[in-house]
């Protein structure tokens, strides 16, 4: 039992030692990379950006400003060109990936939105501008004439409670009710 515990302790101690050694190695590598990047940056700046020497006369200073403006313009043009190239390649990538999806038979369905549309608008969207037919659904309905009989008229008069209320309201209505009761 004690022998196993001793082995476990030794294994964990060895693991801890290896882990700390690896961390120290990684830290030194990171420091070396940072120093190499700094040296590379200094070399690039020394090569591409010469030290600034300000001339004493006004005319030389104006010429220096003109040179700097010309350099800025050229850099901006390069940046714009690279941006356009990047957009173009991104568009080509999207087109190629869409073609790949189409070739595989997998189609990414776009999110659909509900749209309220009349029948005319729907036919116009499907058939294009050559659609001239008007879809007036009520135009094709059959006209039904209702015959007014005396019986229906009486029922309607009795059934319309609003009419009776209006007739009986006020002094005129009370007078009629009193005369009808006599």
TrEMBL record:
Give the Gene3D superfamilies listed for this entry.
1.20.5.350, 6.10.250.180
Please name the GO terms of the biological process aspect recorded for this protein, alphabetically: cardiac muscle contraction; skeletal muscle contraction
Segments forming a coiled coil? 18-106
Offer one Pfam family short name for this entry. Answer: Troponin
Q: Name one GO cellular component term.
A: troponin complex
Q: Which UniProt keywords apply?
A: Acetylation, Actin-binding, Coiled coil, Muscle protein
Keyword Acetylation tagged: yes
Matching InterPro entries, A to Z?
Troponin, Troponin_I, Troponin_sf
Q: Which GO terms describe its molecular function?
A: actin binding
- PANTHER family, alphabetized: TROPONIN I, TROPONIN I, FAST SKELETAL MUSCLE
What does this protein's UniProt record list under function? Troponin I is the inhibitory subunit of troponin, the thin filament regulatory complex which confers calcium-sensitivity to striated muscle actomyosin ATPase activity.
The family note in this entry says:
Belongs to the troponin I family.
Subunit relationships: Binds to actin and tropomyosin.
Q: What is this protein called?
A: Troponin I, fast skeletal muscle
